[in-house]
Design brief:
Helix content is 42%, strand content 5%. α1 packs across α2 and α4 runs antiparallel to α5.
């Protein structure tokens, strides 16, 4: 059995719990979010699950919020500046640029102009 598999981890967690009912699985930090989803799903706990690819991607998160009918941010996303160029040309400033899979404020920039946004993106 792979010692890093969900099966092996679940076995260790159950042993550590010593018979106490396990009702949830929390990630201790951003890096553990994906594995917490895998583990909680494997253990049959309440979970975000693994059915949503790239769930940590901020654009995906906002689209999921919007799909529920809740207010969400206007946004554009992409890996190339050309993917967001038209959005940045029509949007009022300031705008916030954020990498899709960053944690906290890593890589976040408040841009007061199109030129500043282009410079930060590149």
């Amino acid at each position: 059995e792979d010692p890093e598999s969900p099966e092996a981890t679940a076995k260790l967690v159950r042993q550590a719990a010593g018979g106490v009912e396990i009702c949830a699985c929390f990630a201790g930090g951003e890096a553990g979010v994906d594995y917490a989803d895998v583990l909680s799903e494997h253990m049959g706990l309440l979970t975000n699950g693994t059915s949503i690819p790239n769930r940590r991607d901020k654009q995906v998160q906002q689209e999921l919020v919007k799909a529920t009918g809740l207010r969400s941010v206007r946004q554009a996303g992409g890996s190339k500046f050309s993917d967001v160029d038209a959005f940045l040309q029509r949007e009022s400033y300031p705008v916030v640029l954020k990498p899709t899979e960053s944690a906290g404020s890593d890589g976040v920039q408040l841009c007061n102009s199109y030129e500043e946004a282009k410079t930060h993106f590149d």
